[in-house]
UniProtKB/TrEMBL annotation:
Its cofactor is Mg(2+). GO terms for cellular component: cytoplasm. GO terms for biological process: phosphoenolpyruvate-dependent sugar phosphotransferase system. The gene is ptsP. It catalyses: L-histidyl-[protein] + phosphoenolpyruvate = N(pros)-phospho-L-histidyl-[protein] + pyruvate. NCBIfam families: PTS_I_fam (TIGR01417). It comes from Candidatus Phycosocius bacilliformis. Residues 28-174 form the GAF domain. Keywords: Cytoplasm, Kinase, Magnesium, Metal-binding, Phosphotransferase system, Pyruvate, Sugar transport, Transferase, Transport. This is phosphoenolpyruvate--protein phosphotransferase.
Length: 753
């Protein structure tokens, strides 16, 4: 016999209705849960129905039962992983057994009086993908539970999860882990250094269903159908390019979502939920919770990624159902932004000031989002395992991005220890401030120009605080990425004027637009590309769209009236591209003159060496360009054939290796008297910066946070002597250069940390 299946959907609905009656009764938590197990037991014709809830130590405590001995309630606790109940929680999956005592994990508890019960069905009670308890039915005689009974019990567990989380608000369940309350420490990878503390702000907050139970399954199914229809057509519109905003989501990911949205078994699970009496939202929530839970326990990376995609799809569907378009709300003060991944434009939208740190479950250290975080001076940690299922909105978090650690809900001891680290950090910053006005010279008197990488006007305030001698890289595309529409000539001119004003006579090197790749402007049409980093971006787009380029160059020429104008072109792959780009600038200069404008007092044009092809033609380009700047972020990704945006390969190869350093040395030597700077992220790391100085580079441009540490390093370095050592090391056989350089620094008291 299959009790619930006697008209399965009808049976579940009756039960859900009874549960709702219990929920509205005026009673305490224990009484409510006692009544609930009694109802479930009766409807499912089970001899036993029990609820186990998870305690902070991971054990599962028998909280309510119908059928087991009452004396066992609150006494029986299964340790994490113990017995069949522990197994359900561990595997995050239902377990159905006709002959439970035979199972190797069966654990007999005499106080419960359960030995006469042969069959066992247990399902996890999931909230936001976390197991908060286990719901069990047992029967005296051996019987096999049908699939629809298992599904019915899962459905009840979904409602039960909601009931216990509402009860939790009363404080009655404070000893249990309904919401994560225990402190946790997560270790990831540092994308941008620094310390911060604040409250979790979820980038993609969960849409929580407001209603769980429905009276009208047909109406709910219609709502579900409409939601699915909107979801699919929304994805199709994005894929067709009718809607020109992909945010941080790539085309490939959308394609996967689209494919998954056609998945019949996903749809069937959703339909079963509403047929059985859940609202459309609650049914999606049930499926989402299962996806999350499986994701947390999945060992296989591919499976994890697919489950993450499914979860994202569930989220999108919930948004459609709840009419929440997912618009960004203003971040509260002291927010720690928590996301699976984030695009640079999305990050810029949050603006600066309120976001104190960023934590990502995925992401990549040399992605543009990481660069934006550094530009904003915001610490960022990526690759934090299962971050999203461990954090709830509003949780207190302390971020130590110097050690790549995030402390969730820290206790008093941890907070106190970390706050003393905060004090140490500010003491170190005072130390850097004290070196700000000292000459930037090595021990043997070589002058090294330290410059700032900027992209937002606010970064330029750092010129004064760091003592940088100018801006070596001004990423003009950031303005385009935050705007809702193409910035007009006036807006561009105003921004560049402000930048030059703030620089107060120090040189500012404006890099022309480097859009494309992972830097998308929402309003500009994007075409699907297999390899966007090597695609239609930077100067390639600039040359193909001369209107856009000339507009920007005109704004630069205007802003620099009567002052020095330095313009640099990104991702130039061959000398001719530079000539063509420079022609556009010359035309704008001529246009300004023809229109009676004063024009800049002096113009210098430079090129970024980011494509290996140009690196091998350095001597040639150096004849034409006034200056060169090596973008090591891009150059190294092409040199090692390792995508800077893919976490698994982004820093698999080391710039402090013989091939990379020899390559950079070739560029430096081939440039002759033409100044060459380094402006990739590496320039801001003391050990790497030391190597660059050893190769002969005298101009380093970096994020503001790097200037203090790099200056401290170079002021303790004997440049000549180190250059000789490095030259020898580059000729030695198998030597780990990074270690050799660290050893050199240690032996010669060069401060590289
Ligand atoms: C680089 O590639 O090193 C660089 C500085 O440019 P971006 O990081 O903006 O691509
Ligand atoms: Mg680049």
């Amino acid at each position: 016999m299959s009790p619930v299946s006697s008209g399965t959907a009808g049976g579940s609905r009756v039960l859900l209705r009874r549960l709702r009656d219990v929920m509205v009764q005026d009673a305490d938590t224990q009484t409510r849960l006692d009544r609930i197990v009694a109802q479930i037991g009766t409807t499912m014709v089970a001899d036993v129905c029990s609820i186990y809830l998870r305690r902070a130590d991971g054990s599962l405590e028998l909280f309510a039962t119908e059928g087991l001995s009452r004396d066992a309630v609150h006494r029986t606790r299964m340790k994490a992983g113990e017995g069949l109940v522990g197994l359900v929680a561990e595997g995050v999956e239902p377990i159905s057994l006709a002959d439970a005592p035979k199972h190797r994990r069966f654990s007999y508890r005499p106080e419960t009086g359960e030995d006469p019960f042969q069959s066992f069905l247990g399902v996890p009670v999931l909230r936001s993908g976390r197991v908060v308890g286990v719901l069990v039915v047992q029967n005296r005689y051996a019987r096999t539970y049908e699939d629809d009974e298992i599904e019915a019990l899962q459905l009840i567990a979904t409602v039960l999860a909601e009931i216990v989380s509402v009860e939790d608000l009363t404080g009655a369940l404070s000893e249990f882990q309904i919401k994560p309350t225990a402190p946790e420490t997560l270790k990831g990878r540092t994308y941008a250094p620094g310390l911060a503390s604040g409250q979790a702000l979820l980038h993609d907050p969960d849409v929580e269903p407001t209603r769980y139970l429905s009276d009208d399954p047909i109406a709910e199914e219609t709502r579900l159908n409409e939601g699915l229809e909107k979801l699919r057509s929304g994805l199709e519109a994005l894929l067709a390019g009718d809607v020109q905003t992909l945010g941080g989501t790539s085309y490939e990911v959308l394609e996967t979502f689209h494919l998954l949205s056609q998945d019949r078994s996903w749809e069937r699970r959703l339909r079963d939920g509403v047929k059985n009496g859940l609202t459309a939202e609650a049914s999606v929530e049930q499926v989402r919770s299962e996806h999350r839970a499986r994701m947390t326990s999945a060992k296989d990376g591919y499976l994890r990624d697919r489950l993450a995609d499914l979860e994202e799809l569930d989220n999108r569907l919930l948004r459609y159902l709840s009419g929440d378009a997912g618009e960004r709300k203003d971040a509260p003060e002291d927010s720690i932004l928590v996301a699976r991944d984030i695009g640079p434009a999305e990050l810029l939208e949050y603006g600066r000031g309120r976001i104190k740190a960023i934590l990502l479950e995925d992401g990549s250290p040399s992605s543009h989002a990481a660069i934006v975080a550094k530009a904003m001076g915001v610490p960022m940690i990526g690759q934090l395992p299962n971050l999203l299922s461990r954090v709830e909105a509003g949780d207190t978090i302390i971020v130590d991005a110097n050690e790549a650690q995030a402390y969730l809900r820290p206790d008093r001891m941890v907070s106190a220890a970390l706050h003393s680290r905060f004090e140490a950090q500010s003491a170190e910053q005072q130390l850097f401030a004290a070196t700000r006005d000292l000459p930037s010279q090595t021990l043997d008197g070589q002058t090294i120009h330290l410059l700032l990488n900027a992209g937002l006007t606010i970064d330029l305030e750092q010129l004064a605080t760091t003592g940088a001698s100018g801006v070596g890289l001004y990423r003009t595309e950031f303005q385009f990425m935050i705007a809702d529409s193409l910035p007009r000539l006036d807006a561009q001119t105003a921004l560049y004027t402000e930048a030059l004003d703030l620089a107060d006579g120090r040189p500012v090197t404006f890099r022309t637009l480097d859009l494309g790749g992972d830097k998308v402007a929402a309003y500009m049409p994007t075409e699907r590309e297999e390899n966007p980093a090597m695609g239609w971006r930077a100067v390639r787009m600039g040359l193909d769209r001369p209107g856009l380029s000339r507009y920007q160059l005109r704004a630069l020429v205007r802003a620099a009236e009567g002052r020095l104008l330095r313009v640099m072109f990104p991702l130039v792959a061959e000398v001719d591209e530079f000539h063509r780009a420079k022609d556009l600038l010359d035309k704008e200069l001529a246009w300004a003159r023809a229109n009676g404008r004063a024009g800049p007092s002096k113009v210098q044009t430079g090129v970024m060496i980011e494509a290996p092809s140009l690196a091998w033609d350095t001597a040639h380009i150096a004849q034409y360009a006034d200056f060169l700047s090596i973008g090591t972020n891009d150059l190294m990704q092409f040199f090692f054939a390792a995508d800077r945006g893919t976490a698994k390969v982004a820093d698999r190869y080391d710039i402090l290796s013989r091939p990379a350093l020899t390559f950079l040395k070739h560029i430096r030597d081939a440039a002759g008297d033409t100044p060459v700077s380094i402006c990739g992220e590496h320039a801001g790391r003391p050990l790497e910066a030391m190597a660059m100085i050893g190769l002969g580079f005298r101009r380093l441009s970096m994020p503001a946070g790097g200037i203090g540490p790099v200056k401290r390093m170079l002021m303790s370095l004997n440049g000549e002597e180190f250059a000789r050592t490095l030259a020898c090391l580059l000729h030695e056989g198998d030597v780990n250069l990074r270690n050799a350089l660290k050893n050199y620094a240690k032996a010669h008291k060069v401060i590289v940390n």
